[in-house]
Amino acid sequence: MKARFKSVTVGLLLVAAGTLSAPAMAALPLADSQGVAVPTLAPMIEKSAPAVVNISTRGRVRVEDNPLLQDPFFRRFFGAPDMPRERPTQSLGSGVVVDAAKGYVLTNNHVVDKADEITVTLRDGRSLSAKLIGADPEADVAVIQIPAQGLTALPLADSSRLRVGDFVVAIGNPFGLGQTVTSGIVSALGRTGLGIEGYENFIQTDASINPGNSGGALVNLRGELVGVNTAILAPGGGNVGIGFAIPSNMAHDIMRQLVTYGEVKRGQLGIMMQDLTPDLAKAFNIKEQSGAVVAKVLKGSPADKAGLASGDIITTVNGNPVRGAAELRNAIGLLRVGEKVALVVLRDGKPHTINVLIAQTSQAKVDMGRVQPHLAGATLGTIEEGSPLYGRIEGMVVLDVESGSRAWRAGLRKDDIIQSINRLPVRTIDELKRAIKASERRLLLNVRRGRSGLFIVIQ
User: Fold this and answer.
1) 89: which of 166, 263, 309, 352 is 20 to 30 A away, CA to CA?
2) DSSP-assigned letters across all residues of 302-350
């Protein structure tokens, strides 16, 4: 379903499965076809497919209309009809049973987002009402629960052992056709920087992933879950064989937090970081070609207390190599608050091990009605370390704006980034208050919305 399926450009194109190589064929079970033994995936699929379910949802979302249409005088004068404030929504996707005893199903957040009703249909035809246990929009992972009776679960593989070239199979419910299987290989690992999710560490595959496959299973030839299908890259609107799945290790780590807390409690180091480029490696006079450079250490942060310094190059986290800033951010974002993390850093070309205690992120926020009446109904906050915008954009994020308020009527919306007020930069609450005092009658806001910018006047 186009409203829920995640892709850079959504498009539809069925792709044929590739031919298996001789070594892979030898490892597959054989089936007799007219007296000829041929390799087949059927036994594995017959065992795995019952664990993949269809998910359908229903919900309602608020309709944002022109502020003038909310004025009763305007509607009466021009004869404008009353417009509904909400509209019904529905979506279709897939999910994977990962705990048959407790009825836990892994899926994508965008499949169940804003859903009032979630219905799971098993392969045997049973339809069950599901309860949302928790969701993580930043990683696009959600956990729902269904009655645990006669369920089949997929075992989880160690996705860190995947290699480019490994054969994989995608199982899901594309286009609402019913359960469908496609095969392919792992095309790449550790894909980041795609702008699809806040936390990205995707498995790339050429196994066909289409609308409705979201939340479905990517399995290896042993029938183990290696990834949760989530998106495609579709230039020109068609599936060109570039699909992405969330690694099973990442999905499982997030699932544990969702089941325990109902949310992901991401911690922070308190640093700004960038990739180690060849030019930086040469400037630091080191042989290392991969890692994350500490550009700035925030005062009083866990990194500051542990002794990290600007110019340090982080090469491993808990023994796992770090290839860049995105990989470090993912690794820290999956750790629980209160955990200790061992970082190996290069300082002056020499390795050092630094232990850091992960702390809870603390987002400073303010109810703007207490600061400036013109902004009543809007809540602003600082950009958290866990945000994809952290360290890249300076400003204050709109956490919420009340529908019908003066700020809302002027065009301010949730998730907007206010970069300046009255041409004064705003990065902290103190700067925000000083900028507002510069003009009490009219506020000129420079706002970033997505990849575009605009000015908003509130008076």
Assistant:
1) 263
2) HHHHHT--TT-EEEEETTEE--SHHHHHHHHHTSBTT-EEEEEEEETTE
Reported as a single tens digit per residue, the pLDDT across 318-328 is 888 888 887 88
Token couple for 13 = 């194109």
Express each pLDDT in 340-351 by its tens digit. Answer: 889 999 998 888
* Residue 140 falls in the annotated catalytic set: yes
Task: Considering the candidates 140, 206, 312, 416, report the single residue annotated as catalytic.
Answer: 140
Domain extents in the chain: 1-262, 267-360, 365-458
Q: What is the residue whose two structure tokens read 């089949």?
A: 152
Q: CATH 2.30.42.10: does it fit domain 365-458?
A: yes
pLDDT digits (tens, 9 = 90+) for 350-395: 889 999 988 766 556 677 776 777 788 888 887 766 566 766 778 8
- Residues 419, 446 contacting (CB under 8 angstroms): yes
Q: Which candidate in 94, 110, 136, 405 is catalytic?
A: 110
Q: Would you call 113 a catalytic residue per the annotation?
A: no
Give yes or no: 253 in active site. no
User: Which pair of structure tokens corresponds to residue 26?
Assistant: 């030898």
Phi-psi region of 45 (alpha: psi -120 to 50; beta: other; left: phi over 0): alpha
CATH class, 267-360 region? mainly beta
267-360 and 365-458 have identical folds: yes
Instruction: Give the pLDDT of residue 344.
Output: 92
| Class for the domain spanning 1-262 | mainly beta
Measured CA to CA, the distance from residue 331 to residue 309 in angstroms comes to 19
Strand order in the sheet with 86-99: 127-129, 117-121, 52-62, 86-99, 104-107, 141-145, 131-136
